[in-house]
Amino acid sequence: MTKDKESIVRSFHYVYIVTLIVGTIIQFSDASEFAVDMSKIGLTHVPKDLPPKTKVLDMSWNYISELHISDISSLSGLKVLRLSHNKVRVLDFSIFRFNQDLEYLDLSHNQLQKISCYPIVLDLHSNRIRSIPKPIMKLEALQELNVAFNSLAHLPGCDMFSSLSVLIIDYNSIPDPSADFFQSCQKITSVRAGNNPFQCTCELREFIQSISQVSSEVVEGWPDSYKCDYPESYKGTPLKDFHVSQLTCNTALLIVTIGVTGLVLAVTVTVLCIYFDLPWYLRMVCQWTQTRRRARNVPLEELQRTLQFHAFISYSEHDSAWVKGELIPNLEKEDIRICLHERNFVPGKSIVENIINCIEKSYKSIFVLSPNFVQSEWCHYELYFAHHNLFHEGSSNLILILLEPIPQNNIPSKYHKLRALMTQRTYLEWPKEKSKHGLFWANIRAAFHMKFTLITENNDVKTQSHKNPT
Fold first, then answer.
1. Beta strands 338-339 and 362-369: pairing type?
2. Helix (H) or strand (E) holding 145
3. pTM exceeds cut of 0.70
4. What are phi and psi of 238, to 5 degrees?
5. Contact 426, 396 (CB under 8 A)
6. Using an 8 Å Cβ cutoff, are 55 and 72 in contact?
7. Mean pLDDT of successive 10-residue stretches along the chain, which has 470 residues
8. Preceding peptide of 223 cis, ω within 30°
9. Phi, psi angles (nearest 5°) of residue 245
10. 451: which strand partners?
11. At 179, is the secondary structure helix, strand, or coil?
């Protein structure tokens, strides 16, 4: 009984060992039938005797230059095809029509110009590609595309790659990738586009803004692999540190901004000028400067004449309140001798003789202009003689003060000299605002900025020196 049991156990062990050996042989047979490695054996074409059930075919590192439909049409279950480091230039569009299960195709390090297939993963790096071939753009099932180390000049969109999730496109020649990439590639989960010659100009501004908003897990190598290559002043600068304002890049916006700013500035200046009466101040300062210059340029010998007064004042009786209340007190407190017709006209002489005499004995002639002045006949005579003396003596001895505005149509045509003077605007305007009175009197005093000799009524010589206290 014991011997029978031992024989049964030995038989069982034998059957188990045989089964294990046979199973292992079958497994190795299946594995070798599903995966075929024919790399680095100097192939120039695809062998004809490939196992029909091959799922993984590696023919990399050979010299294959062509691939025909007859080479792989029998491999209907092929899922992985490696053809890297060969000399393939062209693939027939219909070559993979019987390989609907093809998932991975490695064509890197070839010299491809045309390709048509239906893989899920496509590796085309180092193929000197200048643009994505049109057939590839139709691969709607493509999920991963590797086109690194080529000569691509543009970042492709995903309008046709509806399933693309991984794009490797670094080390190409892309200067200014489109900012619409992330909008068109909604399913993208990983993109590697660094180490390209990025031109940091206005065209790159929107791309930088869009890529900065994407997670660093999606954009591989950001920001270290994304640097400016042009211009020289920004070379080596990370894209994240390149900043340029929208105003600088948008010419139309820049023009509108400058225009609006200029318009606002012009309106502001105009309003301020009107509010603070800036033109009046500028005109007064200009006249003050011109008066000082003329006074300095007049030779002293021309002024060494029989002068008895610094100024003769001509005005209408209707304006006497202002003359006696404002003008005379402000002049006489500066030691300026005034000649007035009511106190300095010589009795017995005609009015015309007195006018001429006063004008000739005065260094300056001051005329207080107003609508009342225009209506006075004698005032006009005084102005006429003073103006005549101006050209006769060759010096600027007229000081016109516009007390009140005089409309041009109110000046009679026979007063052509007054019209000419009013047209030239060579007069000082009396300001109504008290804050402007100081500048007005400074202009008046500037006209007497000269040292000269006065002859008193007793023929005594008196040297007078009047300088602007300001």
1. unpaired
2. strand 144-146
3. no
4. -60, 145
5. no
6. no
7. 42 34 34 79 90 91 87 85 89 68 86 67 87 77 89 84 87 89 85 92 85 85 90 88 78 77 87 70 60 54 65 86 89 85 75 74 84 75 62 60 80 68 74 85 76 51 41
8. yes
9. -75, 155
10. 465
11. coil
